[in-house]
Design a protein that fits this description.
Length: 482
Amino acid sequence: MPRHNARLRSTAFDATMFPMTEVAFQRCIAASCSARYGIEEVLFSCPKCGSLLDVHYDWDRAEVPGSLATFASRWATCGRSTEARADYSGVWRFRELLPFAPLEKLVTLGEGRTTLQQADSLATTIGMKSKSLFLQYEGFNPSGSFKDNGMAAAFTVARLLGKRRVACASTGNTSASMALFSRHARSNDGIPLEAIVFVGGGKIAFGKLAQALDFGAKTLQIEGDFDTCMKLVRDAAQALDLYLMNSVNPFRLEGQKTIMYRVLEGLDWQVPDWIVVPGGNLGNTSAFGKAFVELNYLGLVDRIPRIVIVNAAGANTFCTLVNEHGLRWNDGQWDRPCVDDYQCRMNKANYEAHTVASAIEIGRPVNLTKALRTLDAMDGIVRQVTDNEILDAKALVGAHGYGCEPASAASVAGLRLLLKEKVISPSDRVVCILTGHALKDASTTVDYHCAKTSVGCFVNAPIQCPTNIDAIAKTLNAGDRR
Ligand code: F0G
């Protein structure tokens, strides 16, 4: 049942107490457990049953505006006051929808000021009607990816907890974002937090590695892939009191919910038909489902869009488990033996994911079960696309004046596939999430256009040209090469 007109009660800051709002707590997602924990408890899985945790709110005691349009009025705010800085943030502008920390404690770098782009020429090129396709370009964030939405939220908690060291495993963007925020989110005695990143040797695009190094992160290159790094950083976090910033940290996902709020804002608060998102560790997938379930519960939207999660074919665990093994949320009682058996078989076979979209080169997505919940809530579907399809989609996005890194383009490749399958119709209103900036992985782009990675359909190779005007004129008159 939707509810309205609730009230927020926040506690005053007290250095001896964790100054969180009283309305928030952590809760295990498994229906058979549902254990509750305080939000000051540092937990990345349920101590009772091992399942993932949510940040949950007692909405009856929260103060939520009666209409989403209220949030838009904050967009134009600038200034140095605490409130103005929160209003300027595309995350904290929506603070009443993630009410776990008091205003004066919010960490922000001006993240989330991203807007929805109406991509008409791209739409018609891929067979959609004009005004049907929208791109949410999260590459416009301070570190160049959607991760900044989550980091604003997770760093707020790290600071409240008095943590000095933060850590993550990463395919690149998490580390870049965490490293950037660590330079700004100082501890109470004014010292920047120490950032420690675990990356798979040779597995990270240079643009992202460059950011982690430049922002001073202690960068550990681990022999192995992302999945190895993820396991290692979880153990290290526990053993060495590092605060974990991967998307198993439920506060990260609270920040990432705001991507959906901005999508709605870009559509004048109309709900689209489809959200299409690349699936890696499945944090976005999980956050988007939670965002819509909460908005619906609060009576702020009257329907929930469908979602498409797009895996790379070389990293298709979620797609396989859902489409071939029939894995479902099942009211919070998912088939645990099915997941465990599959992981066991992957381990026995020494399975490693492989895709040109290095950001989603993940075989063991940590948010798998939350993503099942999203599929259920958003009547979702899962697809996989090949590396060539990803690279072609990326080139198309670029050719139409947007730009994104390979993993992001999986969303557009997935859309093209579903148009072909006639699951999505040309006049449906579709939002593809472009998760990271085009310059994050420039070498893959250059390799594509120089035909080093594959024979792409939209190659725009540089042309060798002699140093005289006649030759240049001849080349220019040779016609359009596309
Ligand atoms: N797109 C980009 C550009 C990413 O960097 C990631 C994840 C994803 C999509 C997948 O998102 O995990 O929410 O399903 N990158 C992580 C990292 C894993 O370490 O930077 P997800």
